[in-house]
Amino acid sequence: GFAKWERIEAGVALACPYDLTEFDKLMHSSVVGRYVYGKGLARKLIGKLTPYIDLFNQEVQNYCGHRILLDKEQLLKAESIRDIDRHLTVPLFGYDSLEQYYKDASSRYRLKDIRVPFLAMSAIDDPMIPKTSIPIPEAMSNEHVLLVQTKHGGHIGWVSGDNFGQNRKWCAEWVEKVAISYLDKVLEN
Questions:
Q1: Cβ neighbours of residue 43 under 8 Å, at least 6 residues apart?
Q2: Phi/psi of residue 168, each to 5°?
Q3: For 46-79, what is each residue's pLDDT tens digit?
Q4: Is 124:95 a contact under the CB 8 Å cutoff?
Q5: Which of 48, 49, 68, 184 has a CA positioned 20 to 30 A from the CA of residue 112?
Q6: What DSSP assignment string belongs to 19-80?
Q7: Model pTM greater than 0.90?
Q8: 182 Cβ contact list (under 8 Å, min separation 6)
């Protein structure tokens, strides 16, 4: 399985939705999730797919080698990532169900397989990652995984400054510095 990835020496994941089933539930349980993140992102993805939609007028070969006919009408009506996954990702990759795909694609269940230094950073106040899905036991059981949780940061929105509201700035540099510093230290050994 992982032989082709043996060249990877270290990794970093920022604001990762570790459990796609929990992520999906969160996205559908809030107004912001359903209408801002979910519907907005779905519409963007469908917009990117639309110029190629005629490719789905005929059977296509899925990842497992089976010939399938995608329901392009349902795909074009997608209003959420769940809809896109149900009508595109699941059949294209040969999954039997959305639930099976979400479990297989969730990094929470892969942390045990990591064999290189790996930094996973999340913010506790991230509106896109359910607190219950942060894989603390899984991370603690693997010596290669360093799970870092900051109190604030939102979804990839770590900021820097001295006090809330004073001298604060949007600061992608902070998280980038942390990630690069981690990789520098790991790779120099």
A1: 79
A2: -90, 145
A3: 999 999 999 889 999 999 999 999 999 999 999 9
A4: no
A5: 184
A6: -HHHHHHHHHHSHIIIIIIIHHHHHHHHHHHGGGGGGGGS-EE-TTS-EE---HHHHHT--S
A7: no
A8: 10, 12, 117, 119, 146
